[in-house]
Amino acid sequence: MIKLCVGAEGVEDLSDWQTARLAASGAANPVHVTRMRPKRTAELLAGGSLYWVFKGQILARQRIVRLDEVTREDGASACAIVLSRDITRTY
Question: What is the pLDDT of residue 91?
Answer without folding.
Answer: 86
